[in-house]
Amino acid sequence: MINWEGVMPAVTTKFTSEDKLDLAMFEKNIKAQIDAGVHGIILGGTLGEASTLEKEEKEILIKTSLSLVEGKIPVIINIAEQSTKEAIAVAQHAEKVGAQGLMILPPMRYKATDFETVTYFKSIANSTSLPIMIYNNPVDYKIEVTLDMLEDLMECENIQAVKESTRDITNILRVKSRFGDRLKVFTGVDTLGLESLVIGADGWVAGLVCAFPAETVAIYELVKAGKITEALEIYKWFMPLLELDISPQLVQNIKLAEVATGIGTENVRAPRLPLQGAERTRVLDVINKAMECRPALPEYKNLSSVA
């Protein structure tokens, strides 16, 4: 069982300069996430450079994460495959090695019809007992998971949550109105994090949390405790950084931010390369300005959930 709520970082994958997994830095980052109070760890998403990871590397990341979280929070792995057969194989292997949940994207590289997409999700769900979050991101992946499609998917009891990244936060209200607590809703867009939580999102699959875990969790906890003004003060400071998440180079951007906070490196896996030239200067300027006025956080842990 997964309690589908809270901040769940889509963590970056750490690499050495020799393009191997950097487990020492990965451990340092995961511990920072846990210390800040995140509610789950999501491996192998877009930020995790999933398309470049080998099967053995994914297994290592799952096992390492399970060891670090010590059962306190769930470890979830992303499924983003080109074929249904491979997606099922990845899901079943993840369950075998101990992952506690899945986040599933629609089929990759093929613009599936609604029927094909639903069939794909159902096939994976029926192949595993793991709880599942559906990732709805038509902006980046060109397939929208509509309310009617979600209705069809509700026959699979282990489909329990949706990561809502349509950029239309009113869709959160539509999902909650139609499905109630049967389907938990996470915002998947950093620049809509606070607004989405205020109108009823159960959680936030975040990106900049990779570099700034305490600030991200603080916003979530303050909103849930009805302390919107306090949350908004942090969010205003955070916004220039959060905008680094809505870019094709989000991985490079966020890894640069992780360097600034001491819990990551800039190493990416080719064909990605570290930022160059004017864009690198711009991103570093955003990060450096934020670091110069990083806010002192209120005590956000153990807040009452009653406003």
From TrEMBL:
- Look up keyword RNA-binding and say if it applies: no
Q: Which SUPFAM superfamilies match?
A: Aldolase
Q: Which UniProt keywords apply?
A: Lyase
What's the domain of life for this entry? Bacteria
Which InterPro entries does the entry link to?
Aldolase_TIM, DapA-like
* Organism lineage: Bacteria, Pseudomonadati, Bacteroidota, Flavobacteriia, Flavobacteriales
Family per record: Belongs to the DapA family.
Taxonomic source organism: Flagellimonas iocasae
Is Lyase tagged as a keyword?
Answer: yes
Protein name from the UniProt record: Dihydrodipicolinate synthase family protein
Name a Pfam family for this protein: DHDPS
Q: Which PANTHER family match?
A: N-ACETYLNEURAMINATE LYASE (PTHR42849:SF1)
